[in-house]
Inverse folding.
């Protein structure tokens, strides 16, 4: 009887361990980069993106994220891979920075500290729209926010 109880306990512990390991996201966070056009959103560093926005008189979309933020990863996985979001993102200079590594920029564009934070700016740096957190409604809701920003640009 004791053997049976011990085997059941071992099986339960193994099952719980498997369930926990399935919930851990082992994929590395996406890193911002200037991707090849047509393959996804082209992300720029802050300095490079600001320069391009001023030269091209184009509005900016700034994504403030952290590596430990699950909703930031969800934005990368679901929203930023949506074809309509990718197409509309071409109307912006897209900048992405890690708030933990760029605390000065985070304090400027995201003083409350919640991530993800998406800040839309005119080419002169004037804020025109802001989205705090993951958009309820996923890519469709994010597209709506992008349109609001474009209409205010």
């Amino acid at each position: 009887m004791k053997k049976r109880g011990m085997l059941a306990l071992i099986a339960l512990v193994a099952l719980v361990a498997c369930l926990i390991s399935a919930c851990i996201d082992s994929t590395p966070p996406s890193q911002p980069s200037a991707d090849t056009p047509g393959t996804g959103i082209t992300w720029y560093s802050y300095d490079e993106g600001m320069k391009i926005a001023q030269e091209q008189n184009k509005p900016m979309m700034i994504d403030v994220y952290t590596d430990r933020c699950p909703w930031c990863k969800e934005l990368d996985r679901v929203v930023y891979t949506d074809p309509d979001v990718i197409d509309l993102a071409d109307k912006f200079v897209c900048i992405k920075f890690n708030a933990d590594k760029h605390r000065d920029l985070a304090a400027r564009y995201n003083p409350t500290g919640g991530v993800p934070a998406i800040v839309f700016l005119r080419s002169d740096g004037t804020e025109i729209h802001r989205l705090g957190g993951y958009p309820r409604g996923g890519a469709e809701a994010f597209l709506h926010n992008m349109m609001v920003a474009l209409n205010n640009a």
Observations:
- Helices lie at 2-23, 46-56, 70-79, 83-89, 103-109, 138-152.
- The CA atoms of residues 85 and 121 lie 17 Å apart.
